[in-house]
Automatic annotation (TrEMBL):
<dbReference type="InterPro" id="IPR005488">
    <property type="entry name" value="Etherase_MurQ"/>
</dbReference>
<feature type="domain" description="SIS">
    <location>
        <begin position="49"/>
        <end position="216"/>
    </location>
</feature>
<protein>
    <submittedName>
        <fullName>N-acetylmuramic acid 6-phosphate etherase</fullName>
        <ecNumber>4.2.1.126</ecNumber>
    </submittedName>
</protein>
<keyword id="KW-0456">Lyase</keyword>
<dbReference type="Pfam" id="PF01380">
    <property type="entry name" value="SIS"/>
</dbReference>
<dbReference type="GO" id="GO:0016835">
    <property type="term" value="F:carbon-oxygen lyase activity"/>
</dbReference>
<dbReference type="GO" id="GO:0009254">
    <property type="term" value="P:peptidoglycan turnover"/>
</dbReference>
<dbReference type="GO" id="GO:0016803">
    <property type="term" value="F:ether hydrolase activity"/>
</dbReference>
<dbReference type="InterPro" id="IPR001347">
    <property type="entry name" value="SIS_dom"/>
</dbReference>
<dbReference type="GO" id="GO:0097367">
    <property type="term" value="F:carbohydrate derivative binding"/>
</dbReference>
<dbReference type="InterPro" id="IPR046348">
    <property type="entry name" value="SIS_dom_sf"/>
</dbReference>
<dbReference type="InterPro" id="IPR040190">
    <property type="entry name" value="MURQ/GCKR"/>
</dbReference>
<dbReference type="GO" id="GO:0046348">
    <property type="term" value="P:amino sugar catabolic process"/>
</dbReference>
<keyword id="KW-0119">Carbohydrate metabolism</keyword>
Length: 293
């Protein structure tokens, strides 16, 4: 019986106990790097998925992520990071995780076998027509994630499916399938290794491309962040100085008046606008700073 790649054993795993620590670690790193190449092979599919996500984000529709186990944790990380990094509105973000928040402390695998639970969680998430959902599953057949994607399609929600095995239910069900054909894991079935690394890279590629196209990333800066802690305030000041050639004092003052919103502060400094004028200018340009820079 031929095993799925995510369950197969890497031939190089034989004899690991006889290798030195450095040799084992070098092999682990080598196989991780090899797994990342799967994202390069999937660039055409990633491009299409990013375009779909961009359309949903530009239309101010909701964005959902779904998964179980380590694949779900990878999805969760991307979902939680987007508001802080690129200013995606948190009230339009949804995470559907098998077993819910209580399962994050002590992962119980039984939750991923419940397709109906996936369907139920989708109904409770409030996603609907023209929203978008990203489902992540190493095997491509996780029942919970499949339940979410099937319910999403029935509701008119656009779907992106990410999996590491070809011709699997999640890829077949998704509107925009992304196959990350990673090699067998150095520890058979431990998809938190290479498979998860490739998933994270693919998600990073999708969200970063979308942020760039929406004008949330300009000249290498995350200009849509809201500076709400010391680290982000310092970063925001550096962004303002770079984009407007202002002084540190001017940057700090503009940020305070703009309530930490970098785009608003940029327009206040570069265009001589007050807060209201900067907000209106952004609305007229769909939140994009580029016409002013």
């Amino acid at each position: 019986m031929k095993l799925p790649t995510t369950e197969d054993r890497d031939p190089q795993s034989i004899g690991l106990s006889q290798k030195t620590d450095a040799e084992v670690l070098s092999l682990l790193l080598e196989r991780q790097v090899e797994a990342l190449k799967a994202a390069a092979d999937a660039i055409p599919q990633i491009t299409q998925a990013a375009a779909a996500l961009q359309r949903a984000a530009a239309a101010q529709n909701k964005i959902g992520y779904a998964g179980a186990g380590s694949a779900g944790l990878t999805a969760l990380a991307d979902c939680l990071e987007l508001p802080g990094t690129f200013g995606f509105p948190p009230d339009r973000m949804r995470i559907l995780y098998a077993g819910g928040a209580k399962n994050l402390l002590h992962l119980e695998g039984t939750h991923e076998d419940d397709q109906q639970a996936g369907s139920n969680d989708f109904e409770e998430a409030g996603l609907g027509k023209d929203d978008i959902l990203i489902g992540v599953s190493a095997s491509g057949s996780t029942a919970y994630t499949l339940g979410v994607i099937k319910a999403a399609r029935a509701a008119g929600t656009h779907t992106i499916g990410i999996a590491n095995n070809p011709d699997t239910p999640i890829l077949n069900e998704a509107d925009h399938p992304i196959l990350l054909k990673t090699p067998p894991e150095i520890i058979a079935g431990s998809t938190r290794l290479g498979a998860a690394s490739a998933q994270k890279v693919a998600l990073n590629m999708i969200s970063t491309l979308v942020a760039l196209r929406l004008g949330h990333a300009v000249r290498g800066h995350m200009v849509n962040l809201v500076a709400d802690n010391d680290k982000l305030r310092q970063r925001a000041q550096r962004i303002l100085q770079d984009l407007t050639d202002c002084s540190p004092e001017q940057a700090a003052d503009a940020l305070e008046k703009a309530n930490g919103r970098v785009k608003v502060a940029v327009l206040m400094l570069s265009e001589g606008l007050d807060v209201s004028g900067a907000e209106n200018a952004l609305v007229l340009n769909n939140g994009n700073l580029r016409p002013f820079l």
